[in-house]
Amino acid sequence: MAAEVLPVTAEDVPDILPLVRQADIDEITEALGIPMEEALLDAVTDSLNAKKIVVDGQVVAVFGDAIHNILGSIGIPWLISTVHVERHARAFLKVCKPEVQGMLTRHNHLINYVDARNTAAIRWLKWLGFEFGPATPYGPKGFPFYPFTLNREN
């Protein structure tokens, strides 16, 4: 089944919330101390281009990019996946690279951090071409997070 990339709004959040993958909950709620509902609402409403990936009627992930620094053209890519991502991995992966390339039309550089425990996300980010720095303590609890970056090719 093919994936659809559709707009996501704050009204979608209550339906997506119970489906969020445990690794994403651990990263956002446990390590960063932010309630998942707040993190998801903020991400959706503060993004330039918040979307959801839907396969066979199931939300597989929500993602977007926000402005970190307008002068330096730096964007913050983010993605929160659901329990359906593994079942629809091929369809999910097929739409990821074009969406990241779209982010690079809005920003020269993409940067964010990923929980060092979130091995599936790290594998996926490497597949997308992101480069990683050494893990450093991040967030209020100081959990190890890897900074990751991707630059627009000129």
TrEMBL record:
It comes from the Bacteria. This is DUF2833 domain-containing protein.
